[in-house]
Every structure is written in C-alpha cells, then in structure tokens.
Amino acid sequence: MKTRAAVAFEAGKPLEICDVDLEGPRAGEVLVEIKATGVCHTDAFTLSGDDPEGAFPAILGHEGAGVVVDVGPGVSSLKPGDHVIPLYTPECRQCDFCLHPKTNLCQSIRETQGRGVMPDGSSRFSLDGKPILHYMGCSTFANHTVLPEIALARVREDAPFDKICYIGCGVTTGIGAVAFTMKVEPGSTVAVWGLGGIGLNVIQGAKMVGASRIIGVDLNPDKVALARKFGMTDFVNPKDVDDVVGHLVEMTGGGLDYTFECIGNVNTMRQALEACHKGWGESCIVGVAGAGQEISTRPFQLVTGRSWKGTAFGGARGRTDVPRIVDWYMDGRINIDDLITHTMPLEDINKAFDLMHSGESIRSVVLY
Ligand code: APR
Ligand code: ZN
C-alpha cells in the first residue's frame, strides 16, 4: 500500500512529505494506522546527525497512537480495530530482561531495532524501490506503519489519540521515573532540574505519589506558572543563587530525598546528585546527554549514602504499564492537555521542530 510520511532523507535537513510504499505485516507483525504523534527531542537529536545510531533515509517518530488495521500470521493479542500505542521499548515477556523484576529494557528485538529494520532484518517502507529505515521500531511520522506485536500496548477505546500519543514517550518517561524507577514514597522531598515537557511530567508524577515538597530548578522563570499548576511547590533559578547545591541543601535541612535531572546536561546531573540527602538521597538521570559526554562527582558522595540511577521510558513495561497510565489520564489523575501546546497537520511537521528549538512549545502533536 501507499502511505503518507515525513521522510528524513539526510541529517540536518528538513523532513519531506512523500507517498511511500508500505508492505503489509509479516508473521508476528501488525499494521497500524497512526492517528496522532508527538514530536520529541529524541527525533530532533537523530535528525541533527549527532545520534551515533542514526541512519538515513528513515521515517522518524516514536510517540504515537492509532488503530490496528491488519495483523500478520501468528498474532494473537491484537485484532483489527484495537486502539494501540507503539512502544520503542517493547515487552516480549520472555527474554532475560523481561523476566528480571528490576528492568524494563526488553532486549528481544534490540539489535534489529537499532539498525532500523524489523526483527527479520528487512524494512517494510520503501520509495521508488529503495528501502527506507524504520526508527526506534515505531516510525510514527508515517500515517501507516508496521510494528512487531510485542511493541504495541492495547489501550481503551474512549481515550483520545491526540492526547494519549504523548504517553508513548514523554509522559511515561517523566511519571514512570518517579513511580516505577525511583518508587518515590508519599511525604518525600523532590527536586527537578528542567521544567520542560519531561520535567513537568516528573513533577506531576511526584505530586501523584504524594511528595510533600517539589522544588523546580530552571534558568527560565517563564516556566514557573505552568510548573506550579502541575504541583511544583518551590522554584530555584540558578541565576539568582551563588551555589545551587548549597542553597537546596539549606532549603531542605540537609538535602533532597529524590532528585531528577531532566535537561541532559552533565553539570546539572552532578548538581542533582550532590543535592541529595546524605545517607539516603537518590538521584535519577532522565535527560539524555550529548554523545560522548561523561558525568563526574567525588566518590565520597556515593560512599556517604547517595545513589545515582537512570531511567529509560520511565522504567515502564510498555504492554503492562502504558494502559494503566492511559487510565490515570482518563480518571483525571494526570494532566496531558496543558502540555500539548501546539498541533499541526503532517505537512507542517517541520514547524514542530522549530517550536521545540526556540523553546516555544512544551509538546507539538501532529494530527493525521
Ligand atoms: N540549568 C537549569 N535549567 C536549564 C539549564 C540549566 N543549565 N539548561 C536548560 N534548562 C531548562 C530550560 O530552560 C528548559 O525549561 O531545561 C528545560 C528543558 O526543557 P525542554 O527543552 O522542553 O526539554 P524536555 O523536552 O523536557 O527534555 C529534556 O530530556 O528527553 C530528554 O533529550 C531530552 O535531554 C532532553 C531532556
Ligand atoms: Zn521521545
């Protein structure tokens, strides 16, 4: 079949809207009509050419929602008409990682996914007979796409695609970091570096689990009003204080129970660790640092009881946890609507990247 897609032909160039060829689902695969997709920093990172795994031409996009159109042989858990969210972190429920209670990083299709192909080693997309690569196993910048069955979460049918697509990456990353990776307890003190799309989701996760104090750290005071709406109780602008770590330690009588770095900057990662309370404070790296960058601290920080962790996809096991997060949204426990600041048709997708780079948007969503 033909489908409309925004194709990344080359690093650093705008996406081009094309009618591409899409082959139907093979064994264990599912054809999905994408109804809406968010545009995330990770798409921009890959498009920039800085992503060591990035390869072109490719159809980017990994934050979508849609409807199953067709299933290949052997698919048993999904049928045409089911509503789904694509998962760049799949859940096979069989590999060593899925069977281990401490991780969500299913490895069953990791190698082929990283190369931009389906698990059998081939691509379903092509243009003029030449293959186009998949991206993060999702390629939601195409109106139709093919995914492995294990990379789709089935979700309730009354949930709006234009909002729940954001659960495919940003919402789950932020809320999951709090609820699944760090398991923040009620009454905890929390600090969050970066009040963008990821940091605001960490804040609302912290509020949801009952944190007593939620301190936001950001250079941009324009972020304060929305962050307060999502549950931030205190704001610190690093420009206004000499020593961010010392200031936070003083504010909290010894440091934070939990900190979250949601910028992707190795200097703020160090601050977030060192602002943790001696003896028990735990810091979680959520932001993605540039290729080749390294973190540092004095080992004494860890010896004296602070710990450093990281999270991918918020520690969520996609097929199990994503439908629960959709329920949290539908029950009014989390706010997605106020984070989606812009929507546009696929033809205008390059505007979504401009809005992200200028810092004007929290999240842009493309509606098919
Ligand atoms: N100190 C404090 N705040 C900072 C600093 C800094 N040194 N640098 C940037 N910020 C703030 C910005 O003002 C902005 O509010 O961090 C926020 C980042 O927000 P966004 O640009 O909206 O980024 P977001 O989508 O939240 O993603 C953050 O997570 O997914 C990764 O790759 C992504 O690494 C990025 C991070
Ligand atoms: Zn993402």
UniProtKB/TrEMBL annotation:
Per its UniProt record, the required cofactor names are: Zn(2+)
Record's catalysed reaction(s): a primary alcohol + NAD(+) = an aldehyde + NADH + H(+); S-(hydroxymethyl)glutathione + NAD(+) = S-formylglutathione + NADH + H(+); S-nitrosoglutathione + NADH + H(+) = S-(hydroxysulfenamide)glutathione + NAD(+); a secondary alcohol + NAD(+) = a ketone + NADH + H(+)
Check the record and name the PROSITE patterns matching this protein: ADH_ZINC (PS00059)
Q: Which GO terms describe its biological process?
A: formaldehyde catabolic process
Which GO terms of the molecular function aspect are on file?
alcohol dehydrogenase (NAD+) activity; S-(hydroxymethyl)glutathione dehydrogenase (NAD+) activity; S-(hydroxymethyl)glutathione dehydrogenase (NADP+) activity; S-nitrosoglutathione reductase (NADH) activity; zinc ion binding
Q: Entry's CDD domains?
A: alcohol_DH_class_III
Q: Which family does it belong to?
A: Belongs to the zinc-containing alcohol dehydrogenase family. Class-III subfamily.
**PANTHER family the record matches:** ALCOHOL DEHYDROGENASE, ALCOHOL DEHYDROGENASE CLASS-3
Q: Which NCBIfam families match?
A: adh_III_F_hyde
| Protein's name in the database | S-(hydroxymethyl)glutathione dehydrogenase
Question: What organism is this sequence from?
Answer: Seongchinamella sediminis
